[in-house]
Amino acid sequence: MEEFHVNIMAVVVATVANFFLGYVWYTVIFGKAWAIEMKIDMSGPKPSGGDMAKGMIFMVIGNFLMAYVFASNSMAWSFVPGVKEMGAAGNILNATVFTWLGFYLPGDLSRVGWEKHSWKLFGINTGYHLVMLLLAAVIIYYM
For a Cys-Cys bond, which of 3, 67, 76, 124 suits 14, CB 3.0-4.6 Å? Predict the structure, then answer.
């Protein structure tokens, strides 16, 4: 049985990169639209420092777990015949799209159906998930 190891440095870099991507995505690029769709009053009281720290800690933990499992899954797929012949772009897109289709898109769709999220919010969130996975896949593949 072949063994593989997860490149922890790649996981850490993907975690940090996705933390900053989340900041840019949900503040700079889509911050106002996201707040409107989430019905958050941006002129109201700001979250406390403790609430912000808690949110950031949870985000970092979630990003780390995603990157670690994503790296593990990507390594496991490397043993499938023909995968190596796909090249870098094929492997990166394969890992990204199939993970997004199977694990992120269904949850994002469920939020539209069950939690009454708008299609605009769906687009913001699922777009983030797709770009987040793509960024992690590039980092994991090249490190």
Answer: 67
